[in-house]
Structure formats: structure tokens, C-alpha cells
């Protein structure tokens, strides 16, 4: 999938940003906390971020970078100390922030003939899986390609900064959001500053409307009023007109809220269709 | 995993802050002599890069080396970045 993309500027832009859109589209059907359930497609990272990654506690033995489960990563840096062996090719990747050991397993010779021909201090893009081997972090590469257009180097670092800022923001907002939206701003031009402006406003809208348990703030107002002890005690319940007066809201809005709360099983009609009571023990 | 020798991104203005340390910079080549190259940094300051550049040299070249003073780098690694490079985007 990724290895078929070209090295021109447009693909360099979309390489890092395209993959994350797929997990978030799948996640749309099953809402869940942002950082736990959603592993990013391909995360742009620097070697320093790799060196600071911590191991996640579950059996999958994935790493965590900036609070996000890391599945596959992409790094751009210079290749050094290439060591060609019969079953694999090992080398170090130096991106200016550090060096990481990489290993490319060899199955067919023609797969890696291009890699074998690369010289030291050549810029390459490595896509692979981060793993732990004998206590050291190692990148198990499934794709090593030389960089031909050096705007890819600039773009990679900007993508690293972007993912870092995005994931840090998701970490701090994980209480109020049901889903993160990494795809949208990644698909728009990562280089321009516009993408940074686009995302925060999207997150603000979502957090304004929905509190953590999914009730709209107005529904909560109605529910709170009905849940007041004095209203709970009233056998006949509260008339919708009274709700409208007390909460200073139009009757239509009250009706919608009541319908929603009734569906959720939080309120019920008492003596007639206009009197409602809150379910106790909720 | 070795993060002990990072190379800091510098332009002309920042070079003075990393004297004696490993730095990296992309420069636009103005003039190329034997043993040194005169280039323009991303913030339009002149930088002298000493060492043996690869031949042929393209318009933009990235050098990684040790900063000698606030306008000169002793380069160890030269990478030709081509003639079309978004040097404006590189200034992050």
C-alpha cells in the first residue's frame, strides 16, 4: 500500500496523513475513548521520540508515543553502518535527533537489491514496526526507500511536529471528546499554518455540546430540575408548562428534551402526558 | 538507540549559539571554491562551509558538521538537495 506511492511533493504530503483517516472512519461506527481504541495508521516520528517511547502494559507489547498506541511508524533519516547478511540487512538510521537500529528481513533477493546498493549518508524513508529486542528498541522495517525530493525531509519533520501537537492535545482533552479527528487536518496541507487553526475549533464545538455522559446540556437542565428532591416527592409529577416557565425555555424545546429523556429511561409520565417525573435511583 | 550526538537545525542567526557542537543547515550555494563553499542560510546570512564538497554541487546543499564560529561550519557530511527545494518551508 504505502510502498507504491511516488516521491513527488503531493505524495510526500499525503503519505503521513492518509493512513490515519482509515482508522478514524472505522471508529465512527463504534464511539470509544480517543487514545485507547484508535491506533494510528502510520505515525511520523523522530528517533528521539522513539527513544522516549514507553511500553504499553497489554499483551500486544506495543509502544506508546505521546499517549498514543504506536502500530507502524515512518522515519526519515540517513543510513549508516549497513550490514548485509544472508537473512537480513541491518543498518542505523540517523535523523539528527539520534540513531536507531533497523533491520530489514530478506526473503527474496530482488526485494532488497535497491537497499544493498545504497551508500552511507544517504537519506532514506523507513516504514516499519517498533519492537523491543534484547532490551533495545529496534525498527523492523518493511520498506526502505531512498529520498529523491528533499522536500520530503522538511515535510517529515513538520508531520512529526504536527502529530506530536495533535496527540498532546487529544491527551489533554480525552475526557470531553468521544472521538479524535486526526484525519481532517492531516489531509489538508500540513505545511501551511491553516491546519492548526482548523482543528481546535472542531474540538471546541464538540466539547461544548456533549458532556462526558452524552447528555446535551439542556437535557441535563430538565433532568436536574425533575430530580430535585422537592419534585421527586410530588406524586403527580411536574407539568411541562411549569418546566417551561422555570427553565425559561419554549415548550417545544421542553418537549424534545422530555422525549429524549423518556427514551433514555430517565423520566416517565405520571398522571397524564403532560406530567413527568424523574426515575429514582439514576 | 543512541541519542547522544544530535545535530541541531541552525540558520545564520542560530549558528553562534552552537559553536563547537554538531549542527545541520541547508544553504543556497553562492560560490564554490577549493576547500570551502560560500552559501546563504535560510535567514539570508552568509555562511562559509569548509570541507570538500561533492562534485557537482547543486544549488541547495545540506551540511552536517561542527560549528566553528557564528558564520562558519566545518562540514563532515554534504548532501545535495537539488536545485528546486522549498527552502522557505525548511525554516521551522
Automatic annotation (TrEMBL), chain A:
Pfam families attached to this UniProt entry: RPA_C, tRNA_anti-codon
Residue ranges annotated for the Replication protein A C-terminal domain, each copy included: 165-274
GO MF annotation, one: single-stranded DNA binding
Record's GO cellular component terms: chromosome, telomeric region; DNA replication factor A complex; site of double-strand break
Keyword RNA-binding: no
Disordered: annotated segments: 1-35, 173-194
Composition bias, Polar residues: 1-13, 21-35
CDD domains reported for this sequence: RPA2_DBD_D (cd04478)
OB domain residues: 73-146
Superkingdom: Eukaryota
InterPro entries referenced in this protein's UniProt entry, alphabetically: NA-bd_OB-fold, NA-bd_OB_tRNA, RFA2-like, Rfa2/RPA32, RPA_C, WH-like_DNA-bd_sf, WH_DNA-bd_sf
Protein name: Nucleic acid binding, tRNA/helicase-type
Organism per entry: Corchorus capsularis (Jute)
UniProtKB/TrEMBL annotation, chain B:
Pfam family, one: Rep_fac-A_3
Record keywords: Nucleus
Annotated Gene Ontology cellular component terms: nuclear lumen
CDD domains xref list: RPA3
Biological process terms in GO annotation: DNA recombination; DNA repair; DNA replication
GO terms for MF: DNA binding
InterPro entries per record: NA-bd_OB-fold, Rfa2
Entry superkingdom: Eukaryota
Primary residence: nucleus
Stated family: Belongs to the replication factor A protein 3 family.
Protein name per its UniProtKB record: Nucleic acid-binding protein
